[in-house]
Structure formats: C-alpha cells, structure tokens
C-alpha cells in the first residue's frame, strides 16, 4: 500500500474513531455554539472593534471570534490531549501517525457550522469579497495550532496532566486576545502581552477578514506571526516528540 493510501486510510480511521466517541464529538461541536449563544445573550447590542470605524452587532462579532475558539479547540486542545493519551496508552507507537489531519478537517467543519449558525439564527452577513482571506486565515491558523498542539505534548508528563496543562496554557490567552471579550479601543498592558502570542493574531486576522470594510481582508502580519509560531511548534515537535510512553513521570 502506498504512503498516500496509508495517509487517507489513517485520516478515515481517525475521523471514524472521533465520531464514534459521542461525548467527545458532542462537546467539540456543542461548546463553540453554546459559547456563541451565551456571549451573545450576555453582551447583546453592538460592540466596537479596534480598526473598524463602525460598531458591529455583538452576535456578528462572536461568529469569527467563536470560530477562532472552535479551531483552536479542534487542533491545539484536542490534538495535544489525544496524542498524549495515545502515547501513554502505548497506541501511538503502533499507529505511527498522529490525529493531526483529522483535527484539521474537524476544525474546517467547525468553522462552517459556526458561520452557518450565525447566518441562520443571527442574520450575520458573510462578505464574499473577503472569503479567500477568511479561508486562508482558517488554514494558517489550523496548521499553526496543530503544530503547537504537537509541540505541547513534549512537556506534558502524562495523560492525567494533559487537560490541566492544555487548558492552563490556552484559556488565559483566549480572554486576553479578544476571543471571549472584545478588546478595548485603546492599547493596554494585557493587549501588548497578548500580541506576543498567536491567539491574538489568529483572532485579529479572523475578525479583519470578517469585518474589514475595504481591501481583501488579508492581515499579512498576523499570518506571518502565526506562520513563525507554527514553525517553532514544528521544530519543537521534531526535536522532542516522543512516540513512547514517558515512564517514571
């Protein structure tokens, strides 16, 4: 069997295993929609986005914002946890493959679902002119956080610690980067801090591609920063990634 056929078979198996775990599949898809509904209800009305001259509906704002969260959850969070569990169970070394391709497919499916939900229930307007920028941002972001999720497995000591380590590394940045709460119009210390990390740039690029009143919607600097973080993640994963369980930890 060729390498391409093996890759396709691995992707099919990973996705089948994912959807045969109802609890995992439900929370992966339900959480983003649940947050979209909750935040829209809590912060209804209009909100201001730095760099966008006009106020936008809060419900519309949260479509790209929660889309960002959904992609990070499907790639970074789920990938880091699932690879750690497979590694500690001794399964990963037999498969000799990671759930990364499946995670990217789930991420793309999630952004489609979140967008359709927003269009159907909140009458959000999707601009076709910036759709290429939005699609490119989704792909770059999914690749970046997949790489970082694999890199994170190199510092997770065991399966029991995986959820705590993953959530502790990502949740604060989701709040500081304008994903859960819109950023202020002026620069603050925490915005300056957030700009160091890829979550801010992913969220900013998604919002720009969704709301930018002119141009194509491509935020090149944000894409470059995510690309750099992705390369760092790949480098760390290649350097320190382990297929074997970490005994004695």
Can you walk through the features of this model?
The protein has 249 residues and is mainly α. The protein has helices at residues 3-19, 22-42, 58-88, 92-95, 100-122, 131-152, 162-176, 189-194, 198-211, 220-240; strands spanning 46-47, 56-57. Strands 1-2 form a two-stranded antiparallel ribbon. Strand 1 (46-47) and strand 2 form a beta hairpin.
The biggest sheet amounts to: 2 strands, antiparallel
Shape: globular
User: Which structural class best describes the helix and strand composition?
Assistant: mainly alpha
Q: What is the distance, rounded to the nearest whole angstrom, between the alpha carbons of the first and last residues? A: 38 Å
| Count of β-strands | 2
Features:
2 strands; disordered N terminus; 249 residues; two-stranded antiparallel ribbon; mainly alpha; 70% helix
Summed up:
The protein contains ten helices and two strands; from the N terminus they run ααββαααααααα.
Question: How do the strands and helices of this protein lay out in sequence?
Answer:
Blueprint: H1 3-19, H2 22-42, E1 46-47, E2 56-57, H3 58-88, H4 92-95, H5 100-122, H6 131-152, H7 162-176, H8 189-194, H9 198-211, H10 220-240
Antiparallel strand pairs: 1-2
């Amino acid at each position: 069997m060729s390498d391409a056929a093996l890759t396709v078979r691995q992707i099919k198996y990973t996705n089948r295993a994912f959807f045969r775990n109802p609890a995992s599949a439900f929370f992966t898809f339900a959480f983003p929609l649940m947050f979209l509904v909750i935040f829209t209800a809590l912060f209804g009305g209009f909100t201001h986005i730095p760099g966008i001259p006009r106020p936008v509906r809060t419900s519309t704002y949260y479509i790209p914002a929660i889309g960002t969260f959904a992609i990070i959850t499907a790639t970074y969070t789920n990938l880091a946890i699932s690879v750690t569990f497979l590694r500690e169970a001794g399964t990963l070394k037999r498969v000799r493959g990671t759930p990364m391709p499946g995670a990217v497919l789930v991420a793309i499916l999630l952004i489609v679902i979140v967008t359709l939900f927003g269009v159907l229930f909140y009458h959000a307007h999707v601009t076709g002119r910036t759709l290429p920028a939005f699609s490119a941002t989704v792909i770059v972001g999914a690749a970046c956080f997949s790489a970082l999720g694999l890199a994170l497995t190199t510092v997770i000591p065991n399966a029991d610690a995986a959820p705590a380590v993953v959530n502790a590394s990502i949740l604060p940045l989701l709040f500081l980067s304008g994903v859960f709460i819109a950023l202020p119009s002026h620069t603050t210390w925490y915005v300056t801090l957030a700009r160091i990390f890829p979550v801010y740039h992913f969220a900013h690029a998604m919002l720009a591609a969704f709301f930018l009143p002119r141009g194509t919607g491509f935020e090149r600097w944000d894409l470059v920063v995510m690309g750099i973080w992705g390369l760092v993640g790949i480098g760390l994963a290649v350097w320190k990634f382990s297929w074997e369980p970490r005994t004695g930890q």
